[in-house]
Amino acid sequence: MDRVRRVTSLACVDIGSTYTKAALVEEGTGRLLATAQAPTTLDDVVTGVLAATAGFPDAPVLACSSAGGGLRLAVVGYEELISAEAGHRAALSAGARVVHVAAGVLDGGGLAALRAAEPDVVLLVGGTDGGEASALRANAATLAGADWSVPVVLAGNAAVRDEVATLLRTGGLPVREAGNVLPDIGRLAPESARAAIRAVFLEHVIGGDRLSTDPRLRRWVRAVTPDAVLEGVTVLARAAGPVVVVDVGGATTDVYCVPDADAEQATLGREAVGVPARRRTVEGDLGVTWSADALRRAVAAEGLPNPGDELELAGAAATIALRRHLRAETGYGPGGASARSAGLVVLSGGVFRHADPAAVDDVVARIAEDAGGAGSVLAATPVVVDRRYVLAAVGLLAPDHPGAALELATTLVPR
Question: For the structural domain made of 69-204, what CATH number should be given?
Answer without folding.
Answer: 3.40.50.261
